[in-house]
Specification:
Blueprint lengths: L1 E9 L4 E9 L2 E4 L10 H6 L4 E7 H17 L3 E7 L8 H14 L7 E5 L1 H13 L6 E5 L2 H7 L4 E6 L2 E8 L4 E4 L9 H18 L1 H16 L10 H22 L19 H4 L9 H18 L5 H13 L11 H14 L6 E4 L5 E4 L4 H15 L15 H4 L8 H7 L12 E4 H4 L7 E2 L2 E2 L3 H5 L23 E2 L2 E2 L4
Parallel strand pairs: 3-10, 4-5, 4-6, 5-13, 6-7, 7-10
Antiparallel strand pairs: 1-2, 8-9, 11-12, 14-15, 16-17
Helix pairs in contact: 3-4, 4-5, 5-6, 6-7, 6-8, 6-10, 7-8, 10-11, 10-13
Length: 494
């Protein structure tokens, strides 16, 4: 929430306005957000006696019964906008579909929308709230590692436009964010690994203790969903809780003085210098965590070549990426890509490279004086180093599938897969659905707004991409098409 204080002074030629906006919002750690013994969420909606929830389709399938029982227990009317957002559906069309539900629900000016899902869902629904009456409150419940650790910290909300990633957006703080790591129990290991990269990012450049814990518990954290799966050792759960809390706290300390990104030297941009272009270059795009891991590993090699990161620390960083099964190299991460990505990021960062690199491990410096020749030399050395690592630096399950993008499941439209597996969307929360993007084809480029079908071929045929000059066209099915996940969570019955 925010409050604006301003002064107006008369000048010789007119008036001079000075305004200061106070932004405040809360984070609450809890287990079992939909447990009837936890009234925290219900308390937020007691005044209104009802709730409009925008939620990920798979969260609905997995937790819908429990969510409906929770709101029934507290005598709160629940209405649900069910959506399914991958990069392709991170669009203005999906945003307008959410707006349709806000209209149908009759949202009041200060009434908060509940947003439940991964970072893509919170991005689009958050932007819908920012745009609706120019400022509508929302409460955020992230459900993936990236959503919990990274997206939940920022107040940035956005949609893709054409071939450009996050081209339309706003800075809009949620009223409250609930952090329930219990959602990781149902998150596939590939998505756990994907989010693990964000913790390496923040710890490598800002929090050495967290890096050391990631080194110590790497395999166990990934195998147990950060200590949340049944039978996880208490020691791993305690380490995971310390890692997650410290990581979020450090991100908040770094981001809150710069919520509107007025300052462009950003520690948490480690791994985001060349990856915005490289992420979508392969025919099947990289998962975000793998794309930034390649960038981070290469950046560490660059820092080591320049003598600002020791050989021992450089090896520790690369070893952690390798153990986690994260990507450190790819054949299309080449000199031509470096050149194009550098030109693109210079535009984004007002003419300076501002490449965040660890120096030493646990702290960060920014490089602005790196020539293309130096970049190419570092790349050659990096690729040579990768020959000594498992898979030559390639990651495990590094590329997007239906769990990231929501195109198809097992090469079939999701509705057909649901029918074949007995999933007809019928659970305790089905009665609460006010609008279903999946049934209406919004995720697949055919949204319906107030009863009118809207054609949007550019969204249906192109995968929105990064900086200028990148063709975002991409197929997103895995080689064998096999997947039983949607937007990250394992569905009931698979």
């Amino acid at each position: 929430m925010s409050d604006l204080k301003a002064t107006v002074e008369e000048t010789q030629k007119g008036f001079h306005v000075v305004g200061y906006e106070k932004i405040e919002y809360d984070f609450t750690f809890l287990d079992g957000i939909f447990d009837i013994h936890n009234p925290n969420l219900a308390d937020c909606y007691e005044r209104w006696g009802r709730c409009l929830a925008v939620m990920d389709r798979n969260i609905f399938d997995t937790y819908g019964d429990q969510m409906q029982a929770y709101f029934d227990h507290f005598n709160l009317e629940l209405k649900i906008h069910k959506t399914m957002i991958g990069e392709k559906a991170k669009s203005i069309e999906t945003l307008l579909s959410i707006v349709d539900s806000m209209n149908a629900f009759g949202i009041f000016r200060k009434e908060p929308v509940l947003v439940v899902g991964g970072g893509l869902v919170t991005d689009v629904a958050g932007f819908a709230c920012a745009a609706y009456r120019r400022n509508t409150n929302f409460i955020r419940i992230p459900t993936t590692v990236i959503g919990l650790i990274d997206a939940s910290v920022s107040i940035k909300v956005a949609v893709n436009y054409g071939n450009y990633k996050n081209r339309l957006g706003a800075y809009h703080a949620p009223q409250h964010t609930f952090l329930d790591f219990g959602f990781l129990r149902t998150l596939p290991k590939a998505q756990i690994r994907n989010g693990f990269a964000e913790l390496i990012k923040i710890s490598t450049c800002a929090h050495l203790r967290t890096f050391e814990l990631l080194e110590q518990y790497c395999d166990q954290l990934i195998d147990t969903g950060f200590g949340r799966t049944d039978g996880s050792p208490k020691e791993v759960r305690e380490a995971a809780d310390e890692i997650n809390r410290a990581g979020i706290h450090e991100m908040l300390k770094l981001e809150t003085p710069n919520l509107h990104e007025i300052g462009l030297d950003r520690v948490i941009a480690y791994g985001h210098t060349w990856s915005p272009m490289h992420e979508l270059v392969p025919e099947v795009p990289f998962r975000h965590g793998h794309a930034i891991s390649i960038d981070m590993a290469y950046s560490a090699t660059l820092a080591n070549m320049r003598g600002i990161l020791s050989d021992a620390e450089h090896k520790r960083i690369l070893s952690l990426f390798s153990r986690a099964g994260l990507s450190m190299d790819h054949d299309q991460f080449d000199e031509d890509l470096l050149d194009k990505a550098t030109k693109a990021i210079l535009r984004t960062r007002d003419g300076k490279l501002r490449a965040a690199v660890p120096s030493p491990l646990g702290r960060c410096v920014f490089l602005n004086d790196v020539s293309l020749e130096d970049m190419h030399a570092a790349l050659r050395q990096h690729k040579e180093l990768m020959q000594g690592y498992p898979r030559h630096g390639a990651g495990i399950e590094a590329f997007v599938d239906a769990s990231d993008t929501g195109y198809t499941m097992n090469r079939k439209p999701t509705e057909a897969t649901d029918h074949a597996n007995g999933h007809n969307g019928v659970n305790g929360a089905s009665k609460a659905i006010i609008k279903d993007d999946v049934a209406e084809g919004v995720y697949n480029g055919g949204p319906v707004h107030d009863g009118q079908v809207t054609s949007c071929p550019s969204v249906a045929t192109k995968h929105a991409s990064g900086p200028e000059g990148v063709n975002g066209s991409a197929k997103v099915e895995t080689e064998n098409g096999a997947t039983s996940e949607v937007n990250g969570h394992v569905r009931n019955g698979f």
